[in-house]
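User: Here's a structure from my thesis project, written as C-alpha cells. My advisor, Dr. K., wants to see whether a designed sequence matches the one we expressed. Can you design one independently, without my sequence as a hint?
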C-alpha cells in the first residue's frame, strides 16, 4: 500500500508526525454586483505566502490537483511562452519538485484537471495550444502520464470546469469553448474508462471560464460564474449526480471568469479567489467561501495580488488550500499561497 506523505499535527508535546495511507484518504474536491456585501472576520482564516527554495516558472491558466495516492499537489503546465515544452511539478507542503515522467501530455493552456479517487489517478482533459483545441484525456499515476483512448469523449474544449463527484465516484465536466462552440453547455462524466454525456432535464446556461468544486459537506458539485453566451455570469449551481439545481441567492461573488476555487475540508467550505471581472475586465483579489447555503466574503489580513488563472487545489495532508501563480498586473508571479 502506498503511503501519503507525512503531515504535521500540533499538540502538548509540540509537532508530531502523522502518516496516512492512500487508501484511507478520500479526496473531496483541484465567475452582478454583490448586494448587500457580507464581509466576515478572518481572525482564524487567511492567506499565508510560502517561500519555497525553488518554484515552477510563473504561468497562468494551468491546472493543479491534489493526488491523494502520493499526498502531493500536482501542477501541469508549460515551461515557455511558445507552448513548446510542458512540465509536471509536485508540492509536498513545503517544497516544489519538478518531475521527469517517461511520457507527458503536450504543453497547453486552459486544461481541466482533477483527482479521480475511484481510480487513484489524476485526470487531465483538453485545453488549447499552438496546435489548436485539444480533446485528449491523460492520467497521472504518481510517476508518469498515460494517454487514454476512451470510446467516447467530449469534443475538444478549453476553459471547461471539472470536479470529482465523490458521491457517484465519477469526474464531472461542464462547459468550455472551442473554435465552433464558444460557449459549451454539455455535462460529461468520466468513470475511469470512458466519458458519458449526461442529459439532465435542465442545467446551467452554456459558458466558458467557470469554476467547479465538490462540496463534501453537502455531497454536491458546485459551479460558479463564467462567461455566458449573452452576458457575464455570477450564478451558483449544484449537481447531485443526475440533476443541476440553480441556487437563488441574494448575496454572491460578482461576475468573473478564470477564478480559483477548491473545497477546504478543514473548514467544510468551498473557497473562491479572484478571477477576471467580466463586466469590466479588471482583475479581482477577493476571497469568498460557500457553506452549502450562503456565500460569505472573507476579509483576509493578507492576500495574493488580484489575478486570474491561478492554479489551486486542496492539500489534504497539510489541511490547507494551495494557490500558485496566475496572471496579475505584474505578469505571471511564481508565488505560492496557502489558505487555512
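Assistant: Designed independently from the structure alone:
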Amino acid at each position: 500500500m502506498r503511503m501519503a506523505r507525512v503531515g504535521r499535527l500540533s499538540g502538548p508535546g509540540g509537532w508530531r508526525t502523522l502518516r496516512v495511507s492512500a487508501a484511507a484518504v478520500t479526496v473531496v474536491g483541484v465567475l452582478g454586483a454583490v448586494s448587500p456585501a457580507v464581509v466576515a472576520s478572518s481572525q482564524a482564516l487567511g492567506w499565508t505566502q510560502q517561500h519555497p527554495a525553488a518554484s515552477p516558472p510563473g504561468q497562468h491558466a494551468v491546472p493543479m490537483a491534489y493526488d491523494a495516492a502520493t499526498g502531493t499537489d500536482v501542477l501541469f503546465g508549460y515551461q515557455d511562452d511558445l507552448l513548446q515544452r510542458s512540465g509536471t511539478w509536485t508540492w509536498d507542503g513545503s517544497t516544489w519538485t519538478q518531475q521527469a515522467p517517461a511520457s507527458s501530455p503536450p504543453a497547453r493552456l486552459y486544461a481541466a484537471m482533477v483527482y479521480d479517487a475511484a481510480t487513484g489517478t489524476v485526470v487531465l482533459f483538453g485545453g488549447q495550444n499552438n496546435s489548436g483545441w485539444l480533446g485528449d484525456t491523460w492520467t497521472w499515476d504518481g510517476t508518469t502520464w498515460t494517454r487514454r483512448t476512451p470510446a467516447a469523449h467530449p469534443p475538444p474544449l478549453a476553459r471547461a470546469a471539472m470536479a470529482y463527484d465523490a458521491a457517484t465516484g465519477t469526474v464531472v465536466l461542464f462547459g468550455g469553448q472551442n473554435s465552433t462552440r464558444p460557449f459549451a453547455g454539455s455535462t460529461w462524466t468520466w468513470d475511469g474508462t470512458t466519458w458519458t454525456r449526461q442529459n439532465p432535464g435542465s442545467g446551467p446556461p452554456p459558458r466558458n471560464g467557470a469554476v467547479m468544486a465538490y462540496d463534501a459537506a453537502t455531497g454536491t458539485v458546485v459551479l460558479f460564474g463564467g462567461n455566458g453566451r449573452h452576458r457575464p455570469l455570477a450564478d451558483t449551481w449544484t449537481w447531485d449526480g443526475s440533476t443541476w439545481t440553480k441556487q437563488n441567492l441574494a448575496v454572491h461573488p460578482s461576475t468573473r471568469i478564470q477564478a480559483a476555487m477548491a473545497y477546504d475540508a478543514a473548514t467544510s467550505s468551498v473557497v473562491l479567489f479572484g478571477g477576471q471581472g467580466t463586466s469590466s475586465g479588471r482583475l479581482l483579489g477577493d476571497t469568498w467561501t460557500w457553506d452549502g447555503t450562503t456565500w460569505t466574503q472573507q476579509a483576509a489580513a493578507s492576500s495574493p495580488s488580484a489575478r486570474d488563472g491561478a492554479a489551486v487545489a486542496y492539500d489534504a495532508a497539510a489541511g490547507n488550500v494551495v494557490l500558485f501563480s496566475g496572471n496579475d498586473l505584474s505578469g505571471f508571479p511564481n508565488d505560492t499561497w496557502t489558505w487555512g
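When you compare it with your expressed construct, this may help: DSSP finds no helices and 28 strands in the chain.
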